[in-house]
């Protein structure tokens, strides 16, 4: 079943660590985008809340391609980074966290949502994209009133296209919540998959001073962090396939 899932929602959120957490969220977003390109998958940004030139507070994308869910499902969890931030003058190593959630996209026919349960608002998308994006209210925000789950999309050029993308994200989140029998607030949904993003709730640690990545679930370590952040995730993914 999982091998046949060909589209996912990738959600990355900066956790503890301030600007450094946002910068690392940007690093992870680019890592997954590069990995998708290596695999020949389609990568589409749906929504992003930027923090500085290279960072994100929140980054949501859709990735489509053969075997995408099977390959990336184990990326869900809290990723911890240990490194000296560019802004650190004393050379001290800081510890920050970023949460990652990977959700399978569910077709409309497989998961129905009542229109009466939705609150839909529109706004100007802002950012690059030409006059149409900046002057017309194309950005969409959808609230699922029974659960409090909120989703949005602003990267498409039309209101209709953004609404469709936002609904994909919403179906994925509600489906996952139902599967885990945790339908409730968005906080409960995320806790079920990635915890509270605290420094101690980690699935993987990126230790830059020692040039080492450790995945705590399979108890394996890899060197050459920069190469992995360039999209070379295959050694980590293969380690999980051997375990499973």
Structure notes:
It is a single chain. The chain is of the alpha+beta class and 244 residues long. It folds into two domains: 2-106 and 189-239, Alpha-Beta Plaits, CATH 3.30.70; 109-186, Double Stranded RNA Binding Domain (2-Layer Sandwich). Helix content is 31%, strand content 31%. The protein has seven helices and eleven strands. The chain has an eight-stranded mixed β-sheet, with helices on both faces. A three-stranded antiparallel β-sheet has the order 6-7-8, with helices on one face. It starts with 6 loop residues before the first strand and ends with a helix. The model is unreliable at 127-134, 182-187 and 192-200 (pLDDT under 50).
Work out the count of structural domains. Answer: 2
- Report the CATH topology name of the largest domain: Alpha-Beta Plaits
Give the helix proportion (percent range): 25-40%
> Mean pLDDT score, rounded?
83
| Number of distinct helices | 7
Major sheet characteristics: 8 strands, mixed
Distance between the termini: 14 Å
Overall radius of gyration: 18 Å
| CATH level 1 name of the largest domain | Alpha Beta
Low-confidence stretches: 127-134, 182-187, 192-200
- The secondary structure category is alpha+beta
Please tell me what the overall shape is: globular
**H and E string:** EHEEHEEEHEEHHEEEHH
Beta-strand share of residues: 25-35%
What is the CATH-assigned architecture of the largest domain? Answer: 2-Layer Sandwich
Per DSSP E runs of 2 or more residues, the count of β-strands stands at 11
With strands numbered from the N-terminus, the spatial order across the biggest sheet is: 2-3-1-5-4-9-10-11
């Amino acid at each position: 079943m999982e091998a046949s899932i060909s589209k996912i929602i990738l959600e990355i959120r900066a956790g503890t660590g301030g600007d450094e957490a946002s910068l690392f969220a940007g690093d992870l977003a680019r890592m997954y985008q590069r990995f998708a390109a290596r695999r020949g998958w389609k990568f589409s940004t749906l929504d992003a809340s930027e923090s500085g030139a290279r960072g994100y507070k929140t980054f949501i994308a859709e990735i489509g391609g053969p075997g995408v869910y099977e390959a990336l499902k184990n990326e869900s969890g809290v990723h911890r980074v240990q490194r000296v931030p560019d802004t650190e003058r004393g050379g001290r190593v800081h510890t920050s966290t970023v949460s990652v959630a990977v959700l399978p996209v569910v077709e409309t026919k497989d998961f129905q949502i009542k229109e009466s349960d939705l609150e839909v608002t529109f706004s100007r998308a802002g950012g690059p994209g030409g006059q149409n994006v900046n002057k017309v209210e194309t950005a969409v925000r959808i609230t699922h009133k029974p659960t409090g789950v909120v989703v949005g999309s602003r990267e498409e050029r039309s209101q209709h296209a953004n609404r469709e993308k936002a609904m994909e994200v919403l179906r994925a989140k509600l489906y996952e919540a139902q599967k885990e029998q945790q339908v409730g607030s968005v906080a409960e949904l995320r806790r079920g998959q990635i915890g509270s993003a605290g420094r101690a709730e980690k699935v993987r640690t990126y230790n830059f001073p020692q040039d080492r990545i450790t995945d705590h679930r399979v108890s394996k370590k890899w060197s050459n962090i920069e190469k992995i952040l360039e999209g070379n995730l295959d050694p980590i993914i293969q380690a999980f396939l051997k375990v499973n």
